[in-house]
Amino acid sequence: MTEVSRIPQHVTIIMDGNGRWAKERGKERVYGHYEGVESVRACTEAAVEAGVKYLSLYAFSQENWNRPQQEVESLMKLFFKSILEERSGFMNNGIKFVVCGNLEPLSEGLREQILECMEATSGNSRLTLVLFINYSGKWDIVQAANRFIALNPGKEIDQAGLESCLATRGIPDPDLMIRTSGEQRISNYLLWQCAYTEFYFSPVYWPDFRREEFNKALEVYAGRDRRFGGVK
Ligand code: IPE
Ligand code: IPE
Ligand code: MG
């Protein structure tokens, strides 16, 4: 294997532990979410420097609607504010911004903000930053099946066909999935797309997961032996 292929093309992160991080400091959970934005910035910079081409982040699951209304509202406000504020940085750094998930239940303002930022950054190619908002893996598989049927009436679903209808179509499957905060589960994230993904679990809470921790994960990944069911 060459040096280059030891760098994952697509790193995905389940950003977890914001609430516990805040609680440890005697603060409201939302304080952890705000601090987590700094980690997004740090990991995005580290990904660009390392030559990672896709960085994707699980920001809000479909199940996260079950949280207290106040927390959900704070998160939606934070998405709006962050996307607005980061836009010029995306342009300056060649970052293409993409959102995956069911955007229908989001406010019109947030939806517009997302679409405008995606449109403005669509020509950038240094790094694609994907934010998963109101996403779940089971939702994606079902919507892909329905989409396939609608586009190909009477045709039997095959793997390539289903893949071409996933919310993540056009984005390569993750090579490395990081989950922070010590939890070791997938929480209805990229169920189809993680078929051969390498997993890395860190005990560090997301607001403390910065450049050094990200690079540590890349180092561990570089030592993994991926066999894809074959023999080496
Ligand atoms: C992750 O941190 C952020 C989101 C799920 C939006 P949490 O809010 O889940 O933090 P913990 O897991 O409760 O500490
Ligand atoms: C997963 O974290 C979802 C996101 C990071 C957006 P959760 O904190 O919601 O997951 P569980 O409930 O611990 O499995
Ligand atoms: Mg959590």
Describe the structure.
The chain has one domain: Undecaprenyl pyrophosphate synthetase (3-Layer(aba) Sandwich), CATH 3.40.1180.10. The protein is built from seven helices and six strands, in the order βααβαβαβααββα. It has helices at residues 18-24, 29-50, 69-92, 108-120, 137-151, 159-163, 211-222; strands at 10-14, 54-61, 95-100, 127-135, 176-179, 198-201. Helix 1 (18-24) packs across helix 2 (29-50), helix 2 (29-50) packs parallel to helix 3 and helix 3 runs parallel beside helix 4. The termini are close together. Bound molecules: 3-methylbut-3-enyl trihydrogen diphosphate (2 copies) and magnesium ion (MG).
Look at the structure and give the CATH class: Alpha Beta
User: What oligomerization state is this entry in?
Assistant: single chain
Beta percentage is 15-25%
What is the CATH topology classification name? Undecaprenyl pyrophosphate synthetase
Number of separate helices: 7
Spatial order of the strands forming the largest sheet? 3-4-2-1-5-6
CATH architecture: 3-Layer(aba) Sandwich
Calculate the terminal CA-CA distance, rounded to whole Å: 12 Å
Low-confidence stretches: none
Structural class determined from secondary elements: alpha/beta
Q: Helix amount, in percent?
A: 40-55%
State the fourth-level CATH superfamily: Decaprenyl diphosphate synthase-like
Give the helix/strand layout:
Blueprint: E1 10-14, H1 18-24, H2 29-50, E2 54-61, H3 69-92, E3 95-100, H4 108-120, E4 127-135, H5 137-151, H6 159-163, E5 176-179, E6 198-201, H7 211-222
Parallel strand pairs: 1-2, 1-5, 2-4, 3-4, 5-6
Bound molecules: 3-methylbut-3-enyl trihydrogen diphosphate (2 copies) and magnesium ion.
One 3-methylbut-3-enyl trihydrogen diphosphate (IPE) is lined by residues 15-20, 60, 64, 75, 181, 206.
